[in-house]
Amino acid sequence: MVKAAILGYGTVGSGVAEVLSCNQELIAKRAGNPIEVKYILDLRDFPGDPNETKVVHDIEVILQDPEISIVCETMGGNEPAYTFSKRALEAGKSVCTSNKELVANHGAELLRLARENRCNYFFEASVGGGIPIIRPINNCLTAERIVEVSGILNGTTNYILTKMEQEGMLFEEALGQAQALGYAERNPEADVEGYDACRKIAILTSLVAGKTVDFHKIHTEGITGIDPTDFAYAKKLDATIKLLAVSRETEDGYQISVAPYLLKKENALAGVNDVFNAVAVCGNTLGDTMFYGRGAGKLPTASAVVADVVECARHLQKTVGCLWEEGEAKVADFDSQEGRFFVRVSKKARADVEKVFEAVVPVVLDSALEEFAFVTESMQEAEFEKCREQIVGFVKKIRIKD
Ligand SMILES: NC(=O)C1=CN([C@@H]2O[C@H](COP(=O)(O)OP(=O)(O)OC[C@H]3O[C@@H](n4cnc5c(N)ncnc54)[C@H](OP(=O)(O)O)[C@@H]3O)[C@@H](O)[C@H]2O)C=CC1
Ligand SMILES: N[C@@H](CC=O)C(=O)O
């Protein structure tokens, strides 16, 4: 019997207990041993819950119990999750986590501690919820030089954008629904301002680079500025708007950004809706591959954590290799990033626009509107900003994913 503990009995933690119980027999077969949850650490008690007798409030009970070989950290946040994870690994207990904030901040160090203590630090659920992406990058794509990773990495914002586009729902209402469904972070600013997707693309790029990407260096924009008029223009252009995270290897380092993008309906990512996420990975010899599934939610995310638990149970006292070491991977200057832009400007700026951007083809939604839009040629971010300075009045840009 392999004994495990769950730290944090919220959306994901309670899902971990449910998946372990619901698929108990097949998990025992696949792990080579039955897996039992011995303790659940939380701040609260859960009277009436089937696991209420397992609840403890002192981490020492778990850390000091030699029977516990696997700890699922589903509390979230940096502290005390960082200290608890570190201490579990130092005690030789493997840790499986869904906590991307912690992985993005301390992944390399926690992996080293796992190696030093002959156990494992696994984090499949930290990116893309239930989508297998960490293990595929580490294992199945290990023969590849990965040149680009991009995709939709946040379920909450994709849910909000889908509801706004398809049902004309207001931002706040759609966010409220995503929170009620258990998709959003405790502080949903992390979702809507793009910070969550930023940490996830930092984790993926760190795995690709083998060194840590400092996520503070990633250009990050959220979706709070996207309004119904943007969707009306997108429809007119046979396009949609998605929050994309993009990471590309260049000679100057990894060019990484998180921002809303306008993308044509025929783009595979345009059809990724609601809480679904998709990650496209391009390898130098393989070409393009894509991973798709539920990016958030109780059971899909818990399923990924439990898969890590099974992998730990199969490798007790052995560390499974993961090439992500301490030291920093270079992030390229964002200003040199190149692409086309969709731009909304006030009607009064027409002459300026034609002078600065030359041959623009205006997109007009409604002649009564005091604005029009156009699409630029491919140019660098810095170049666009210089042009923008020469245009008086309202200017709003959305990048285009070609
Ligand atoms: N929800 C999702 O779909 C996904 C979440 N994740 C990540 O998984 C992690 C957990 O998310 P989620 O389950 O949604 O969050 P929840 O807020 O639902 O659950 C966290 C649980 O941990 C408990 N907790 C917090 N601090 C402590 C502490 N010091 N000691 C003991 N228990 C504590 C909380 O108790 P209390 O409520 O009393 O504070 C709560 O029960 C986060 O890192 C999140 O980013 C990853 C993928 C998807
Ligand atoms: N809040 C996150 C949860 C999963 O990582 C999201 O919406 O994607």
Automatic annotation (TrEMBL):
Its EC number is 1.1.1.3. SUPFAM superfamilies: Glyceraldehyde-3-phosphate dehydrogenase-like, C-terminal domain (SSF55347), NAD(P)-binding Rossmann-fold domains (SSF51735). NADPH binds at K100. Residues 132-310 form the Homoserine dehydrogenase catalytic domain. It catalyses: L-homoserine + NADP(+) = L-aspartate 4-semialdehyde + NADPH + H(+). Pathway: Amino-acid biosynthesis; L-methionine biosynthesis via de novo pathway; L-homoserine from L-aspartate: step 3/3; Amino-acid biosynthesis; L-threonine biosynthesis; L-threonine from L-aspartate: step 3/5. The active site is at K200. L-homoserine binds at E185. Residues 8-124 form the Aspartate/homoserine dehydrogenase NAD-binding domain. PROSITE patterns: HOMOSER_DHGENASE. Gene3D superfamilies: 3.30.70.260, Dihydrodipicolinate Reductase, domain 2 (3.30.360.10), NAD(P)-binding Rossmann-like Domain (3.40.50.720). Keywords: Amino-acid biosynthesis, Methionine biosynthesis, NADP, Oxidoreductase, Sodium, Threonine biosynthesis. One of its GO terms (molecular function) is NADP binding. Belongs to the homoserine dehydrogenase family. This is Homoserine dehydrogenase. It comes from Gallintestinimicrobium propionicum.
